[in-house]
Every structure is written in C-alpha cells, then in structure tokens.
Design goal:
577 residues, globular, mainly alpha, two-stranded antiparallel sheet, 26 helices
Length: 577
C-alpha cells in the first residue's frame, strides 16, 4: 500500500443511489461531529510534528485547501517558510513589471443623477431611471460576490481571504438591509485591506462604515432618541463579548454615537458626522467619564482587558474549531496588547504554535459551504464557475454578504442538516459531470408518471402533469445549480485515471487509497475504505473490467472512477477538514 500520512475520522454513513441523481442518506452521523475538546495544560509542549498532515491542516484553516501534488513541497520548506509565505504582502505587477496597488479592490461606478434633475423628470422617466439603477445594482452586487470567489480561487492571497471571511462574520452587514452595492463594496474592500493588519484601525473604520451604520440603524441614532443597536453589537459582537459591559454602558455608548450618520444619495451615500444630532452631554462608559463623541468609543473599548481576550479567543476558535482555554486566550491577548492589536503578528504566533497542530483539532472541523466547494475545487484541480459557487454556497446556508442575522453565520453542526448534507453530495456529482440537466429532467418526468398512477390523480391531464413536473424541476435547488453549471459551459477537465496512474495504483485497495488521499482532507476509517473497495469492485464488474486493467482504458475507467470520486466526496469525512 502507498504510504500516506493523514489523520483519521471517526464518522461513518450509509450511501444509497437512486435514479439519475445520487441520494445520499445520513445514518446517525451528525451527533458524532461536535467540536473537539480544548487541551488544558501549561507551556510544556512538543515541537510541531511537521509532515503532510500538518501542511494540509495549515492550508485548510489558513487558506482554502491545497492540491495533493503541492504538499511535499511545503513539508520540505518547513513551517516558518509556509507561514511567512502566507503572511507576505502581495503587490500586483503591472505591464512592464512596475508594482501597482498592494491589494486589488472592487469598484462600482453607478449611474449618477443630480437630485434636482431627477425631481424635474416625468414620472415615467423616474421609473425608468430606477429600473436601470436596480439592474446595475443587482449586477454589481453579484459581481462583488463572484469576483471574491475568483480571488479566493486564484490562491494569490489565501490567508488574507480567510481572515476577510472571518471579519465579515464579525462586522456583519447584509445587502438585504443596505440595498445598495456601493457601501457593501466599500466595506468589503476595507475588511480585506485590513484583514491582516490592526484590529484597532479596523474597529475605528467600521464605526464609520456606511453599510454597518445602515445595517444596525446607526444612521438613525440622534440626540434625544438614541438607537442602541450599534452600541450593543459593538460591545457584544465586535469587541468585548457578553458579560463585560452593562445595560447602562450600552445606553451611554449609544449617546456617544449620536450624530454618526450617512449622507444618502442615489449611489449609496458616505459617512458624515451631524453635529446637531449629537448628544454633547457627559457620559460614563465602562467607568470612563467625559463628553464622549463617536471617535472616542474605540479608545474606551480597546483599553478594556476583555477586548484583547475577546478578539484573541474569536480568532483562535475560528481557525481551530474549538474554544481555547483561558490560559491560552490570555497569552494571545497579551500578544495583541503588546503589538497594538496587530492581527498578522498574532497569526504568525498561532500558526507556529504546536498546540495549533494537536490531534483533537486536525480534521475535526465541519467545513462551511464555501470551504467545502473551494476545497473540492482545489483538490480536483479544476476551478468551478464563480457564479455556481456563490449560488451553491447560498443554497447550503452561506449566502455571501447576506448573513442570517447580526451574529453572522453559525458554524459547526449548524451547517449540516440532513437536506444540506444530501445536497452537498449531489453538488459534488454535478461538479464531476455525473448529474446533468437532461438527467434531472428525465427523473422529473418519471416522477410525473409515478404521480399520475397515485390514487386521486387519475383525472390529471398529461399537459397538467407535464406542467407540474416542469414547475417542480424549476423550483428544485439542484436543478437550478446544474443549470448554472451548464450556462457557464463548465466541463470537468481533470482525469482520475491519470492521477491514479501517477500514484502507481493498481489494486482496488490502492486505487481507493489514492483517490481518498487526493479528495479528502482527512483519512477515513478502515471500514469506510473497505466499503469504497467493495463499491469499486461492483463498478468494475458492471463494466467487465479487471482491477489491473482498470487504468489501461481511460474511456472505460474514467466514468467508473468518477462514480467512485462522487461517493468519496459525499462521505461524512468529505465535510471535515
């Protein structure tokens, strides 16, 4: 057998196939997927065990996965070289070799109109302007989402994009509330630019951020009628965490934030401090008394011991998938305090911390939808269409720039309902080219035939039955995703045959091990490998292929191996990293 050092999973599942699309059935798997327990102990830790398993762990948590062919390169380079690579600035190189801006930004130039000109137009002209603006806004918002996926897929700056995803879950805003792409684009650019920099600077920028102010009603906060939404969330979710402030502190902070607003216009508006709306009276916030204004609140928050602990704990839990001990939290909080809240410096310490590589957390975190989709794309070496990734992630519960609430997206088991688990497997089938629109249409028509035989359905006309089947197919999320792939003219270009040949795999066991190692971030248990071998044997026998001849005929072997790959990507282990 080939020697592959990976980590083990303790999960199992039963898989059934029915019709053209795979139906993946969950068999009491989810309760086994809790968070790994935190490690308690002092500073006596062993050095990092730097191997393929550790390299893949870093790329899964500090990036969005790594192709198997790249792992040995980073094993040889060592941990410090890899962490330095992830933290290194990425200047853009323009024509002639000159350096351009440090970070690619997303831009949107909306159709502009003078307010007086707009008022002088006819009712129909105004409606037409609004229709044009709405189309432009929708296209710009979708462009923001797809271009970020393109940026992630490029692998140019994986740690920045990983931490940008983290900050989007902290300083949450939703396009559904903001309703204009410009503030969302500006917020994203700010979060991405500051993702590895100073939390101090990021907090200050977000308290002036148009999207955040609009999302949390900060633009409605004024003297005599303070709105506490932003004040509450900035303490509970952005800086201190629950239990480290009082209701009185929230009320006083809301008074300090009065006057911080948005000067609105057709293209989204900009931050403006309205002095007449500000409560200039004395306030006492977290024991600090003064005539506090909006820009004073970050100073008060950052000086609280709880602030550095909250940020340190949040980052560690996000990257490790388990809450850190109080001792470890305080150690990293001290790093933040000593460096002026330098997140990049803290990340370097964390990614070189032997505790980051402990057995309890490697391969024990359930992937988010974006992680699942991008990780699959990276491991296949075949980039999925960005529009498809955005749409598929949304169907799986991670609607980019539109979180479910102010707390952002819940992680862990919240990602994994039975329906979403089944949809992940079917999405993998579509990405492998095994599920097509034509196949789904045939299934829908078969469904109509079955329905027409049900009691009480005899009087349904064939036309009505067809319409029912077509409407059901239109609403079905998998059918919509398959249409997105087909409209992008996506065709999987990778070759499982070539990959297993390159590994020298010949027996069923070797082929299964080769494919599991390339498609999974963790090593499945022995019983799962045996199940996969049994399925490969069945697939070979169906095609009349001997094990040693399997890789000799690409035209016959590739469909067989794609079916096996689909099964592997539908495993519970495929949802972990």
């Amino acid at each position: 057998m080939m020697n592959r050092s990976r980590t083990s999973s303790r999960t199992s599942a039963t898989f059934l196939r029915r019709g053209g699309a795979a139906c993946v059935c969950l068999a009491l798997v989810l309760p086994a997927w809790g968070s790994a327990p935190a490690v308690h102990g002092g500073d006596d830790v062993l050095p990092i065990q730097w191997d393929r398993r550790a390299v893949e762990h870093v790329w899964n948590r500090a990036g969005f996965g790594i192709h198997e062919d790249e792992i040995d390169r980073w094993v040889e380079a060592g941990p410090e070289a890899l962490v330095d690579h992830l933290l290194a600035p990425r200047p853009l190189v323009g024509p002639g070799g000159e350096l351009q801006e440090l970070l690619p930004s997303f831009e949107f130039e909306p159709t502009r109109i003078d307010l007086l000109d707009y008022e002088q137009r006819s009712l129909e002209q105004r409606r037409e302007f609004r229709r044009i603006a709405a189309r432009e806004n929708a296209a710009a918002f979708q462009g923001l989402r797809t271009r970020w996926i393109e940026q992630i897929a490029s692998g140019d700056d994986p740690l920045r994009d990983r931490m940008c995803m983290f900050w989007h879950g902290v300083f949450t805003s939703s396009y559904r509330t903001v309703r204009h792409p410009s503030p969302m684009i500006e917020q994203h650019n700010a979060l991405r630019a500051g993702a590895l920099g100073s939390y101090d600077a990021l907090l200050r920028a977000m308290l002036r951020d148009v999207a955040l102010l609009q999302y949390l009603d900060g633009d409605k906060n004024r003297k005599g009628r303070p709105n506490e939404n932003l004040a509450r969330e900035v303490m509970e979710l952005f800086s201190l965490g629950e239990g480290n402030y009082t209701e009185a502190d929230i009320g006083e902070a809301a008074r300090a934030l009065t006057g911080a607003g948005v000067a609105t216009r057709f293209d989204g508006g900009w931050y403006r401090f309205f002095a007449k709306r500000h409560d200039a009276g004395e306030k006492s916030i977290l024991g600090v008394t003064g005539h506090h204004r909006p820009d004073d609140l970050p100073d008060i928050l950052l000086a609280q011991p709880a602030c550095a602990r909250f940020i340190a704990s949040s980052i560690i839990e996000y990257l490790e998938g388990a809450a850190p001990t109080d001792e470890r939290t305080e150690r990293y909080a001290e790093v933040l305090r000593a460096t002026g809240y330098d997140v990049g410096f803290m990340l370097r310490q964390l990614l070189l911390d032997p505790a980051f590589y402990r057995d309890e957390i490697i391969g024990a975190r359930i992937t988010s939808p974006v992680d699942y989709l991008m990780g699959m794309s990276v491991r296949l070496g075949d980039q999925l269409p960005p529009n498809f990734v955005v749409q598929a992630a949304s169907e799986l519960g991670e609607d980019l720039f539109q979180p479910p609430n102010v707390k952002g997206w819940e992680s862990g088991l919240h990602w994994m309902t039975t329906a979403r688990f089944m949809l992940r497997g079917n999405i993998a089938g579509a990405a492998l080219g095994l599920i097509s629109g034509e196949g789904l249409r045939s299934d829908a028509l078969g469904f109509v035939d079955e329905m027409s035989m049900e009691e009480g359905m005899e009087d349904m006309s064939s036309g009505d039955a067809m319409a029912m089947g077509v409407e059901q197919l239109r609403r079905d999320e998998l059918a919509q995703l398959v249409r997105a792939l087909e409209s992008a003219k996506y065709q999987p270009s990778f070759s499982f045959v070539r990959a297993v040949r390159g590994d020298g795999a010949q027996t069923d066991a070797e082929i299964v091990e080769s494919m599991a190692a390339s498609l999974l971030a963790i090593e499945p248990p022995v019983e799962t490998l045996r199940m996969l071998e049994g399925r490969l044997f069945q697939l070979r026998r169906r095609e009349g292929l001997a094990a040693k001849r399997l890789t000799q005929s690409r035209s016959l072997a590739e469909p067989v191996l794609r079916e096996l790959g689909h099964l592997i990507l539908s495993l519970p282990e495929a949802q972990l990293h």
